[in-house]
Design goal:
Blueprint (H helix, E strand, L loop, with lengths): L31 E4 L2 E6 L14 H23 L12 E10 L9 E10 L3 E10 L2 E12 L6
Antiparallel strand pairs: 1-2, 2-4, 3-6, 4-5, 5-6
This protein binds decanoyl-CoA.
Length: 154
């Protein structure tokens, strides 16, 4: 794993995301890292993330896939350009498409483990496929199409 989380390399003024912003104390503050050619993140759900008692709310899972996907997209774009994470000018991505499949109920208790595979890297678009596992069992899969931050959001 690299030492710095992808999201900790985001510019100061773009670090307030509910899912991953380090400056959002009420958010999830997801942290993603490289693991070889794949990307990984972990998240510990809390009781407020309940769907049915004992099981994780699907919206939380979607949120984790969203932010692991966009973080992975940014890191993949830096890697494709042979640049250090967070170096200027920043490579910033937002979600164009978020697809989630819930394969089985996700137990509330274990740490959730996300693993991402970079499927496509273009100058303005990166596609990331992901799994979300609990107790080493894949509970959900996801796919994010991430596109470079539009001027309207900069
Ligand atoms: C930035 C620093 C970190 C910030 C925090 C992390 C973000 C956390 C994740 C989020 O929640 S972001 C918030 C939710 N997302 C948005 O609000 C984005 C709103 N949508 C837009 O602003 C535009 O639709 C968008 C910038 C995503 C795309 O518009 P463009 O006009 O720039 O896209 P364009 O039509 O040029 O398409 C570029 C490529 O993306 C593809 N694409 C665009 N929208 C798509 C879509 N919906 N589904 C699949 N592919 C899509 C499109 O096909 C094309 O692929 P190819 O290059 O291969 O031809």
């Amino acid at each position: 794993m690299t030492e710095i989380a992808f999201q900790d390399a985001y510019p100061e003024d773009l670090s307030h995301c509910y899912g991953c912003g380090r400056h959002n104390p009420q958010g999830h503050q997801l942290k993603s890292f490289w693991d070889g050619e794949e990307t990984v993140a972990e998240f510990q759900p809390e009781p407020q993330h309940t769907a049915v008692p004992g099981f994780v709310y699907g919206g939380l899972i979607a949120s984790l896939i969203d932010c692991h996907g966009t973080g992975s997209a940014s890191a993949a774009a830096y890697r494709a350009e042979g640049r250090a994470l967070g170096s200027e000018p920043p490579l910033r991505f937002v979600t164009a498409s978020l697809h989630v499949d819930f394969l089985r109920p996700t137990p509330l208790g274990p740490v959730l483990k996300l693993r991402g595979t970079i499927e496509e890297v273009k100058e303005r678009k990166v596609v990331v496929a992901m799994t979300v596992s609990a107790n080493d069992q894949v509970c959900a899969t996801g796919r994010v199409v991430a596109v470079r931050l539009p001027a309207a959001m900069a």
